Amino acid sequence: MTGVSTKGIHGADHLARVPDVVPPINISATFRYDDDPDTWVKAEDGGKPLLDNYLYSRVSHPNSEQVEAIVEQITGYPAVVYSGGMPAYNAALTYYDPKTIAIGHAYHGCRGLANLWTQKFGTKQISIDDEFGGNIGQGDLVHLESPVNPWGTAIDIQAYADRAHKVGAIVLVDATFAPPPIQDPFQHGADIVLHSATKYFGGHSDLLAGLLLVKDAETKNKLVKERVLLGTNIGSLEAAFLLRSLRTFDLRVERQWRSATAIAQHLNDNIDKLSKLTKVYHSSLQTEPFVAKQLVNGHSPVLSIEVTDEATAKSIPGKLKYFIHAVSLGGVESSVHWRVLSDKAIAPNVIRISVGVENVDDLIADLDQALT
Ligand SMILES: *Cc1c(COP(=O)(O)O)cnc(C)c1O
């Protein structure tokens, strides 16, 4: 079987339209019809298939289709690309139109969008840890995030999926924190998988993109049809940047999860010596048996730490040389985030660490000096 790194570089070779080694950025918003009127199909007659027939770039364009082709090879599932993780999540909500969403710890933006649906459309919300009985059923949505933001720890997807499927609910897994090939949520009961491609697929903190992975081509086609109406296809420039990113996707992600794991182990082993550090959270520190079954090819490239108190937490970013204090994660540059700035549900002594591709010994030395 072809490896992920090979697919990242060659997965769209068959879609090349010119001999350029790097696919050109197609900035055209619209595409010329064929000269032969016999090839024209009226929209009222169903039009032409939406993909592979460039019409208007809100529908699709060469760069977005190249991205989808590569992601489909890397993941093994039909993929739909969006202009961000949030538009991808909104597309999933629109597609399933759940009357109830079960949601637990999750990215604050997704919780915010679920709240907006509650406010605007009356969508009910329960916790993923509530009993699933009369409160959730056929066609409703169970929203899981694993590994979960900001901790980088895993939850048992299969256990939640079994409970969800028993009542006929759909299981969405936000897998942003463990990009492929680290885990495959479909192997553990997911019905649809969300990635903020702004993070690891993009990897350079220079684009916004989102992905939905589904189990069959028919669902993909329906999502593409709705994407046309929602107007949330990825832009051409972002898609071209994302194609650049996919060429090093496997290299970056492997370096990032290995370094994150080394950092988590080091910090955890040295809690007694690092006077400001009180706790380390990372999937590699979890001992429950489901973790090894789920995270088959690595660990989260994100971890979180707790320090002695809020004032200390606020002082850490300024002491670090290589970790930029900024929101977002997944870039080649390491970053930290005092998480309560974005998410009031997180205690003020928590700092999230996104590990980049710098030399891991440099990163460890930097954290050591800041935490003593
Ligand atoms: C960033 C993020 C999102 C939202 O994605 P955008 O690309 O910023 O729209 C959703 N889920 C998780 C876990 C994220 O980290």
Question: Helices, strands, pairings?
Answer:
Elements: H1 4-10, H2 62-75, E1 79-82, H3 85-96, E2 100-103, H4 108-121, E3 124-126, E4 141-145, H5 157-166, E5 170-174, E6 192-196, E7 210-213, H6 217-230, H7 236-246, H8 249-269, E8 277-281, H9 289-294, E9 302-307, H10 310-319, E10 324-325, E11 335-338, E12 350-354, H11 360-370
Parallel strand pairs: 2-3, 2-4, 4-5, 5-6, 10-11
Antiparallel strand pairs: 1-7, 6-7, 8-9, 9-12, 11-12
Bound molecules: pyridoxal-5'-phosphate.
How does this model look, in words?
The chain is of the alpha/beta class and 372 residues long. It has two domains: 4-245, Type I PLP-dependent aspartate aminotransferase-like (Major domain) (Aspartate Aminotransferase, domain 2, 3-Layer(aba) Sandwich), CATH 3.40.640.10; 248-371, Alpha-Beta Complex (Aspartate Aminotransferase, domain 1). The chain is 35% helix and 14% strand. It has helices spanning 4-10, 62-75, 85-96, 108-121, 157-166, 217-230, 236-246, 249-269, 289-294, 310-319, 360-370, and strands at 79-82, 100-103, 124-126, 141-145, 170-174, 192-196, 210-213, 277-281, 302-307, 324-325, 335-338, 350-354. The strands form two sheets. A seven-stranded mixed sheet has the order 1-7-6-5-4-2-3, sandwiched between helices. The protein has a five-stranded mixed sheet with strand order 8-9-12-11-10, with helices on one face. Helix 2 runs parallel beside helix 7 (236-246) and helix 8 packs parallel to helix 11 (360-370). The structure holds pyridoxal-5'-phosphate. InterPro entries: Cys/Met-Metab_PyrdxlP-dep_enz (IPR000277), Cys_met_metab_PP (IPR054542), PyrdxlP-dep_Trfase (IPR015424), PyrdxlP-dep_Trfase_major (IPR015421), PyrdxlP-dep_Trfase_small (IPR015422). GO terms for molecular function: carbon-sulfur lyase activity; pyridoxal phosphate binding. Its cofactor is pyridoxal 5'-phosphate. One of its GO terms (biological process) is transsulfuration.
